[in-house]
Amino acid sequence: MMDCKEVGTVLFLFFDNEMEEELLAPFRDHVAQCSHCTKRMAYTRKLLVIVREKCVRCSAPDRLRHRILTSLPHRGTVPGPY
Amino acid sequence: MPKTSVDHQKGWNFEAAAMPFVDALYNTAYRMTRNSEDAEDLVQETYLKAYRYYDKFEEGTNFKAWLFKIMKNTFINNYRKKQQAPTLSDFAEIEESFENQVSEDATRQTKNPEEELLENVLDEDVQRSLDKLPPDYRMVVILADLEGFSYKEIADILEVPVGTVMSRLYRGRRLLEHAMLDFAREHGYLREGEPAKMRSKSVSK
User: Distance (Å, rounded) from C-alpha B21 to C-alpha B12?
Assistant: First the structure.
């Protein structure tokens, strides 16, 4: 079974689905019987949800799409100064 | 075939494959340059380079990650030098303290007040906190939490070991957490009418 320190080391790995298979059971076993780590789990989950959901994504402006497309050679004859 | 002729098939293939990622690339470019003009130039240059090297892209590998890698390299070449932004080695020390940090966290009581504080975090707090992160940490957090890349994909994009991705992500998220809690604390105190001097100083390093 893991201790609190080890759980802290791999906490993000768990939420990122990056934890190695064989660590999952020892991780879950520890958290299940440790109120401190249970709280950390809840807190970390909330933290990650906030970062992932509250961070506003900005879309590319239309003029950028236009700039990119007109710069590609196969589109090359679209409105140019020549 | 004359040299000047345009490879139309390549052009259409590239366009169909690459254009769906323009929002993701622009968003990351904007977070990294913190300036819409630079972000647009960065994305434009990324597309030009990607088109030029499209023949080198290995079919079956992750195309989105490939585009991000080109943008990362372009960003480092064009902007990091100009900005004299902190370099990787400036943060090596912080990364070395990763282990210490982990043990500190393990012994630290997780206080309920912090969890409540998180409720006070506004959308723009996340934004501002992210902007405050040193570039290396910001990049990893963006790639993981906003773009959903795996550790392995991030390691490929940044050309660093997976262990480095893990330690930067750990540190980056912790820095982000502290910055967000500081903002939330400010809102909380302001709402409750606590004196301004009670506000904690922002943690930036």
Answer: 15
Rounded mean pLDDT, A1-23: 93
- Interface subset of B 132-151, CB within 8 angstroms of A: 141, 144-146, 150-151
Per-residue DSSP letter, A75 = G
Tell me which chain A residues have a C-beta less than 8 angstroms from the C-beta of B22.
Answer: 60, 64-65, 68
pLDDT of residue B71: 97
Tell me the average pLDDT across B131-146.
Answer: 95
Cβ atoms of B110 and A39 closer than 8 Å: yes
Q: Rounded to an integer, what distance in angstroms lies between the CA atom of residue B161 and that of residue B147?
A: 19
Residues of chain B positioned with their CB less than 8 A from the CB of A55: 123, 126-127, 130, 145-146
Decide if A49 touches B, using CB distance below 8 A: no
| Pure H helices in chain B | 8-18, 22-33, 36-52, 63-75, 81-83, 88-96, 98-107, 112-119, 123-132, 135-141, 151-158, 162-192
Q: What is the C-alpha separation between B38 and B23, in angstroms, rounded?
A: 15
